[in-house]
């Protein structure tokens, strides 16, 4: 809130200091700490620069690709044809040794890019080799 001074009119050289004092009293006070006051645009620029620096440091510290130059070995697989009345669970149960049929079903689904566990007679499936 600004305070306006009403001063009596004076003649001569003393009127100028009084006018300057009246103008000075209308200005908002500067922060006593001597800090910098930023406009909305200035705060946005500081925020964007900070984000760019953090992003740059993150990219620099993340390193490069973790892939190797040597190819990996492919999982040994076999192809089989689904018989009439056979389900994916039956096929997975016949292929698993440790009893984790659900895990084998997921592996077969992943190898064949299946959306569900539904299979049809005559369908070719890639399954892990025994």
From TrEMBL:
Origin superkingdom: Bacteria
CDD domains: LysM
Pfam family, any one: LysM
PROSITE patterns: LYSM
Segments passing through the bilayer: 45-67
InterPro entries: LysM, LysM_dom_sf
Domain LysM: 78-127
Keyword Transcription: no
UniProt key word Amino-acid biosynthesis: no
Signal peptide: 1-15
Keywords: Membrane, Signal, Transmembrane, Transmembrane helix
Protein name from the UniProt record: LysM domain-containing protein
Naturally occurring in which organism (per UniProt): Nocardioides fonticola
């Amino acid at each position: 809130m600004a305070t306006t001074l009403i001063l009596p009119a004076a003649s001569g050289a003393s009127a100028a200091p009084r006018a300057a004092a009246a103008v000075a009293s209308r200005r908002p006070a500067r922060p006593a700490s001597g800090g910098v006051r930023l406009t909305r645009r200035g705060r946005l620029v500081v925020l964007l620069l900070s984000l760019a620096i953090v992003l740059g440091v993150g990219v620099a510290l993340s390193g490069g690709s973790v892939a190797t130059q040597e190819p990996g070995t492919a999982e040994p697989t076999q192809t089989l044809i689904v018989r009439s009345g056979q389900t994916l669970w039956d096929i997975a149960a016949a292929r698993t040794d440790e009893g984790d049929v659900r895990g084998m079903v997921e592996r077969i689904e992943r190898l064949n890019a299946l959306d569900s566990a539904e299979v049809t007679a005559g369908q070719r499936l890639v399954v892990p080799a025994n």
